[in-house]
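Sequence design from tokenized structure. All designs in this work follow the same two-part layout: the structure record, then the generated sequence. An example of the structure record is given first.
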């Protein structure tokens, strides 16, 4: 019975893999559905494999390699848009839209779901985070502030790639020297985890290879079909690219984090999504300019139009509120309600980017003005970050 999810996942990829094998070219809507489900299934398989792989991979390597593999679906789709943008300028806006959508979904829905479940299951009105979370918080602060640079410039360049790469690598180094947490294997991953060592490792490699191959043959047609589907159905293609595409890539992380909360490990569940935010807000953003330049054949700047400038600034404003919310190493139920409330209201008022950005900033100022622990936490996060870079133990502020 424990292997049924794997059978379902492989079966879900079969329709599209059959089309690829036969060389068929279905219409845009059919392609979007088949490739979307294939990527979703592959993403779940990657998530299960990464959970189990942490049993055999050294902690530092697990953080640097497996965290990257876990978000491969989102990178693949977003990189496809950036690659095509070198020859089709319209695709540049899609690349930015997909990135901002993934970031805002993670905070607007993901974080709140976890604290909401913690309240429903354990009557806890907040999730307390570990002391070494200052690493993530400090990196998010720098990445959020730096977002103003490409917006002001009107483009993402290789300089931005270098800055974000340095941030990400610094985060990995600090994280690998932090507190060691014994990984908890949950859900379908248990089936692989209980195999004998040799068979377990073989199963992980097979799962990673199969899921990676599925994503490789699905990412480009999925991205293209979403745009064409929007045009055919009269639906804003930006809406599909910004919100529908990230749902497939974010789902596995959401499910794993939810299972952690339901099993009483709310701290690690939320940390999973916070770490994912760091990953997306640094390496994913930096990847776009690099892919665009490679596709162009020379160092090039990925253009950011006015609409996407507003999207990036709104995403940065949401990040500011998220940082203020967890600066004291606590994430409260009411803070999650504010995050989700403002996020959902944006669909009713889709052009009010500036107003919602101000709302996020005002809420952030309110938290920092009336909560000394949050103000102290902002400064303490940097002390924690540099302490961990030196290999010292983090302490609660």
């Amino acid at each position: 019975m424990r292997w049924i999810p794997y059978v379902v996942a492989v079966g879900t990829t079969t329709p599209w893999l059959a089309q690829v094998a036969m060389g068929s070219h279905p219409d845009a809507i059919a392609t979007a559905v088949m490739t979307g489900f294939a990527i979703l299934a592959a993403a779940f398989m990657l998530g299960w494999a990464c959970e189990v792989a942490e049993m055999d991979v050294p902690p530092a390597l697990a953080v640097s390699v497996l965290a990257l593999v876990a978000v491969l679906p989102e990178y693949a789709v977003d990189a496809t848009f950036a690659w095509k943008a070198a020859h089709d300028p319209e695709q540049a806006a899609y690349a930015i839209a997909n990135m901002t959508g993934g970031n805002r979904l993670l905070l607007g829905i993901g974080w709140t779901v976890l604290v909401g479940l913690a309240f429903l299951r354990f009557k806890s009105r907040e999730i307390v985070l570990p002391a070494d979370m200052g690493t993530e918080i400090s990196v998010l602060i720098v990445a959020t502030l730096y977002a103003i640079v490409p917006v002001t410039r009107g483009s993402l360049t290789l300089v931005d790639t270098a800055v974000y790469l340095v941030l990400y690598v610094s985060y990995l180094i600090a994280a690998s020297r932090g507190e060691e947490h014994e990984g908890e294997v949950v859900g379908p991953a248990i089936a692989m985890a209980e195999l004998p060592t040799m068979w377990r490792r073989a199963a992980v490699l097979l799962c990673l290879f199969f899921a990676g191959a599925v994503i490789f043959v699905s990412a480009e047609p999925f991205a293209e079909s979403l745009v064409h589907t929007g045009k055919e159905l009269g639906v804003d293609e930006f809406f599909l690219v910004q919100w529908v595409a990230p749902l497939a890539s974010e789902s596995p992380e959401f499910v794993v984090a939810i299972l952690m909360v339901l099993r009483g490990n709310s701290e690690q569940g939320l940390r999973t999504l916070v770490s994912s935010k760091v990953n997306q807000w640094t390496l994913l953003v930096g990847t776009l300019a690099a892919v665009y330049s490679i596709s162009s054949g020379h160092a090039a700047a990925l253009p950011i139009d006015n609409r996407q400038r507003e999207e990036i600034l709104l995403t940065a404003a949401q990040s500011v509120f998220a940082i203020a919310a967890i600066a004291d190493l606590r994430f409260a139920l009411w803070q999650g309600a504010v995050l989700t409330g403002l996020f959902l209201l944006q669909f009713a008022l889709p052009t009010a980017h500036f107003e919602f950005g101000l709302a996020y900033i005002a809420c952030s100022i309110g938290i920092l003005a009336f909560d000394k622990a949050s103000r102290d936490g902002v400064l303490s996060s940097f002390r924690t970050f540099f302490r961990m870079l030196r290999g010292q133990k983090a302490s609660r502020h």
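The chain has 16 helices and four strands. We note this feature because it recurs in several other targets discussed in the main text.
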